[in-house]
Specification:
aspartic-type endopeptidase activity, 3 domains, single chain, protease, about 30% strand, Cathepsin D, subunit A, domain 1, about 25% helix, hydrolase, 25 strands, about 475 residues, alpha+beta, 6-stranded mixed β-barrel, Aspartic_peptidase_A1, disordered N terminus
Length: about 475
């Protein structure tokens, strides 16, 4: 334990200005959310300021804010910005000082303080699970982990309707979905707008000016996104891994260009990607088992599961949520008898996955804050108004289309138990996840060891308290 402390002190001595910037950027946020900072992890979480082998594995800590947000730090134009690592989106979106409705965070990126900022002309609307933001295309010198880009495309929010920003520890969303996703979405939108224009002419009508302008703008956006690569492509990242610490309040880790799944193949199960430019895989054999019995759910044709490191919750089909909600009648209002609840079991590809009750139930604070209202309406609860025992599951039936497969969204609770490597591959055909059980320190372990830990955990569940105003 002494070695990283000495390394951190050395870091401080060598780069005192960056260290001061880091503390100045993060301490006010930490105070706002009541977070105790781990100085060593905080220093290691900053982008490196010296030459490194960008093709070698690089382990970057993710700072835990209230078990609801995990933060990596990115440098933009010399300014240190906290960003949430999000495998559910693929762009770098920044809620900077020029945004008129992005909340009160104290260390926002300010393009006026940067000599390398370039503003674009394209507008785009980005929709997240907690709302949306109207953004303008921009370019900037960006560093994260071991990487640096002198001309990285990002989207600067001009306005936002996102309640989470009132209490967020992050000021950017660092999208780590497959890098072609923005181009696919943009060109599909362009095709839609051109088809609308073509249909008008096919009907023998003159197209209104606004339809022509919309088609032109959609094509311009698609061309711009094709030329300006997403971060994963700019940095030529071949793989990365994410894991969050199992203990309440513990940090996580993002490993760039991770090779652990290749060096320790016996610990991992390969899971092919089935989604079109998303980290979506096949989910089957879904089961809920506990004191009230065992219940199987219809995934015979296979459900879809989206791995989303930016989501504080787990998304499940309505039938799964209702079954567990019934079991909550056996639960004390203070969450002290989690062993009364069932565990979730399913398969991702050929990987067997289980989530114990402390993965999907927690005490919830901060219920009176405005930013908590939207999420709280979707979470069943027991107990008094403050520190309610909440089911941290949301229905996904309304998220997908009726003709599509039932959808699961595996958010932060999943990454607290499973070390997950994302292999981008040269094409969609060889893109895959590699999943292994993780110990409390985010080290991959064997499934046999995981079963032993599950039996221990059944007697020592983690009673987690999450601030609802920080949930994303």
């Amino acid at each position: 334990s002494k070695k990283p402390v000495r390394a951190a002190h050395s870091w401080l001595q060598r780069y005192p200005q960056m260290a001061r910037l880091l503390r100045a950027a993060v301490v006010p946020i930490a105070v706002a959310v009541g977070q105790q900072l781990d100085n060593v992890a905080l220093l290691q979480a900053a982008p490196v300021d010296e030459p490194v082998d960008i093709n070698a594995p690089f382990r970057q800590p993710l700072i835990n804010f209230g078990d609801a947000q995990y933060i990596a730090y990115v440098t933009m134009g010399g300014q240190l910005i906290p960003g949430m690592v999000d495998t559910g989106s693929s762009e770098l979106v920044v809620f900077g000082a020029t945004c008129t409705s992005c909340g009160p965070a104290p260390a926002r990126y300010n393009p006026m303080l940067s000599s390398t900022y370039q503003e674009g002309k394209l507008q785009n609307l980005y929709v997240f699970g907690n709302g949306g933001a109207s953004c303008v295309s921009s370019q900037e010198q960006v560093s994260i982990g071991p990487f640096r880009s002198s001309n990285q495309t990002f989207w600067a929010a001009e306005t936002a309707d996102m309640p989470i920003l009132e209490n967020a520890a992050f000021e950017a969303v660092i999208g780590l979905a497959p890098p072609e996703l923005p181009m696919i979405n943009a060109w599909q939108q362009a095709v839609t707008m051109v088809q609308k224009l073509t249909d008008t002419y096919d009907n023998g009508e003159l197209a209104p000016r606004e339809i022509v302008d919309e088609a032109k703008e959609a094509i311009d956006v698609a061309k711009s996104l094709t030329q300006g690569a997403a971060m994963l492509r700019s940095f030529n990242v071949s793989s990365f891994s994410i894991c969050f610490g199992a203990k309440t309040g513990s940090n996580g880790v993002l490993v760039w260009n991770d090779k652990t799944h290749r060096d320790y193949k016996q610990l991992f199960t390969q899971v092919p990607i089935t989604g079109n430019a998303t980290w979506t895989v096949k989910l089957s054999s879904a089961n809920v088992s506990g004191r009230r019995g065992s219940f199987d759910f219809d995934c015979a044709g296979a459900c879809d599961a989206l791995l989303d490191s930016g989501s504080s919750l787990i998304g499940v089909p309505r039938a799964v949520k209702e079954t567990i909600q019934e079991a909550m009648q056996d639960l004390n209002s203070d969450c002290t008898n989690l062993d009364a609840l069932p565990s979730l079991h399913f398969k991702l590809g050929e990987a067997t996955v289980s989530l114990t009750p402390d993965a999907y139930v927690a005490r919830v604070s901060g219920v009176h804050k405005k930013s908590a209202h939207t999420i709280l309406k979707r979470l069943p609860s027991l107990g008094d108004e403050e520190h309610k025992c909440k089911l941290m599951l949301v229905e996904t039936d309304e998220m997908g289309e009726p003709e599509k497969k039932p959808l699961w969204v595996l958010g932060m609770p999943f990454f607290r138990k499973y070390y997950t490597s994302f292999s981008i591959g040269r094409s969609r055909a060889d893109r895959a996840l590699y999943i292994a059980p993780s110990n409390a320190g985010c080290i991959p372990t064997s499934y046999a060891m995981s079963l032993t830990e599950d039996r221990f955990q059944e007697q020592h569940f983690t009673n987690r308290t999450v601030n609802a105003s920080h949930m994303y």
